[in-house]
Amino acid sequence: MFVFVCARCDAELTVPLSQVSLPAHARQNYGNGVQLPVLMESGTFAVDPDPWGRPWQVWDEIDPGEAEARGIYAPVYALSDSAPDAAVIAPGDIRGTRLIPEKRGGGCCGLNGADGPNLACVACDLPVATRIDDCSLWQAVRLSSDAVYRVLLDGVDAAPRSWEELTENGESTPPFEPIARWGGRLGSSHYWSWSPQWEAAAGQALAHLLVASEGQPVKVPGGLTADVFQRALDALLPAGAPKRCAVLAGPGRPAPDAGVDILLVPIHPQTDQTWTPASPAASAYPVPLPLGVWLWLVSPEPYLPVPTSGGIPHDVLRDDPLPPRPNCLFRADRETFQHTLVRLPAVRRPWLREILANLTQYTSTGLF
Q: What is this structure's pTM?
């Protein structure tokens, strides 16, 4: 457990926090006027290795060598020049700060952080963090790495949970959920949709799947996995044979065959480490998925009709309709896909550069 303190006056700025991996949807901008919930679970923090927010440099102003030194291997519109390694926490876990009114950032329904740090230390007035709670953005506070530092409590850091514990007790993430919106004629409204977390996770995984494909067709398992990935893979990769085979693999799963080319595997939610198999499939390309998404793919939870409360006989079931499926095909999150792909060295290959150049076209056709 850690607390974060002000770099100028050493005032404590957070409750005790434990470190976890940064969610795949941390930088997602979802829909228009959508009420997204808090990004981080209370009592946790994650470190974002990439700079975020102003000041910005447009791509034409950046030397290609400098971009590659920062881990960017393909053109982007602009890169942030702020300090990297911000700690991302839930807004309710911040302490000892005040809002800086002139740094509201021109948000639509809240704060978007566009004007830089908007929270100052109450004790010394140093700008220390950026609160984000505007519509279509995940609510979070980003602690600036050049304005705070963390202190380990009691000199003890808890060991991360084992893969066995995670598969037995981890919570899976449903692929569908009701989405709340602001700004309707009748106030707030809801609609049923694919989960924003799934769309971001798919954007991240799709970038890795394309690299793993080596420009060849890829076949993923049927069912929900195919609903999420196969349409995009068929559109972005050439048709024909031979096809590279991707399978779901991970703790508690049967060992993948030696002929498997690509493994869809979970990411440890505390250490950010991707699960790796023993031989004979150790040479397969591991495509990372958030644990909650991976758990649902390997063990889908049926929407069984169950009694609302006690007192109903065991052989009598509730006849409520099942939750509706979304009325559109699945789309991977474009921004997460692009953010991931430009940071993979393989994107230097011409056919991957061409995919990046045509992202607007693919978006207009409903692929993203």
A: 0.90
